[in-house]
Request: fold
Amino acid sequence: MQFSPVMASGPRIENILTCDVISIGFAKEKDGSWVLTGPTSLVANVETFFGLDLLDELAFFTPSGKAGELFEIPVSAQATKAGRIFLTCVGDKTTPDLRLAGAAIGRKVREKSIDVVSLCAKDKLEIKAHAISMVLGAYTWNQKSDAKKGKPKFFVVTNDSRNIEEAQIIAHAVCMARNLIHTPANIKNPAWMASQAQKIAREKKLTINVLAGKGLDKFGGLRAVGNSSPNPGPRFIQIGYVPKGVKKNRKHIVLVGKGITFDTGGISLKRPYDTMTAMKSDMAGAAAILSVLSALADLKPDVQVSALLMCAENALSGTSQRPSDVITHFGGTTVEVINTDAEGRLVLADGLAFADLTLNPDFLVDIATLTGAATLALGRQYGAMYTRDKALARSLVAVGERSGDRLWHMPLIDDYEDALESDIADFNHTADKGDYSAGSVTAALFLEKFVGDRRWVHLDIAGAARSESDAGESPKGGTGFGVRLLIDWITNL
Ligand code: BES
Ligand code: ZN
Ligand code: ZN
Reply:
């Protein structure tokens, strides 16, 4: 686990001189002049201490004003640790720009054992967002035999230690999800996911129940997908956070995550084959909700939360399911399998029906790398959100903007519903009747068949769960999308 703590330090200059690097924010004003951001008197003290006029120094670099632009100034003063000042551009001083600035600072000190204090943000939520992003920018994952072992530590100047504790917990949770996603599928099979969940549950005193083998008799979708693999078979992993004390009408949220540890497509093998190499991340939904539960155990909101990790490997073998098979989901709905590469909705259907029929959730949320079509529609910066609950959609969009995991409310288009008809089962699963395209929409319409009358939200994160480049807050690979969103939503319900 790679993790760098974000910590509070008092507002006195002596405290920040114990860091190796002091990062000071700058921004362009409307009139084209430059200003330093961050706590004003402290920034002035830094200038006095080092005998520097930082705006003068800045002019030397001819900055563009883009958030995340960073200039290094070597400083030396006896009896201090500080050897560098980073002048970091905070763009328009908005929260998203403070995130980019944080990520740039983190990226600059990756794998180095360096203490960095940032004086970029002032306001509580901005400090939190900026602090989280420093950790996210510093994140790396590799299995290189000569991997660098250094770990930066990040500090911000604040008296609100709770705010920073929360930032630390959230950053840790996103890194945890990223670690799970980056782990390759020769290590990460459904049984491995269960052992990770068990470890977290033990450490954080969460409830856990894992079903495998005969225990999955009623989970026709999970079995049909997961029994294709010669690796240990599919796992249904249920983890619970229950607040202390008895309270009437406490809300219960159930999160369902797609946990396909590798998606070959099965008999409907993925083509072209290089599209398969990203498919170790097909468990990003499950990774996100496991990490969210781990964080909730520390944040202790007064909400009951259950996470259902639907874990299976979609392999190609003699025991793979066939296109044309008919399976029976939890609760009895029958489905005709058309394309075995649309496996995500089959495992989710069992999870959603289980939640609806046995857990009585007030809110039912699923999160899944479900369709390539979601990436075509929105790219990688937004998750596709489906729900008929307009008020809930509005609040989740706002939480998305605030947390950094942005969502776009997509339509559940009833006109496409007949695509799910089947001559031999209740539904066909790839919506192959008719010619509607809109693969992310029809996948959502399929899932809706399993949620009863619940207040349900479906998050298709196929695009946002993975970054194809090392840029902004994300490394190349798993982003941990959904972790900040769900933690923010649940803790502010
Ligand atoms: N895991 C994929 C979706 C995906 C694609 C995630 C690219 C991330 C990046 C999913 O299981 C899948 O293959 N979906 C098919 C469904 C189709 C066969 C109806 C798709 O989207 O092409
Ligand atoms: Zn697939
Ligand atoms: Zn998949």
Q: What stands out?
A: The chain has two domains: 6-159, 175-491. The chain has a mean pLDDT of 95. The longest helix spans residues 161-182.
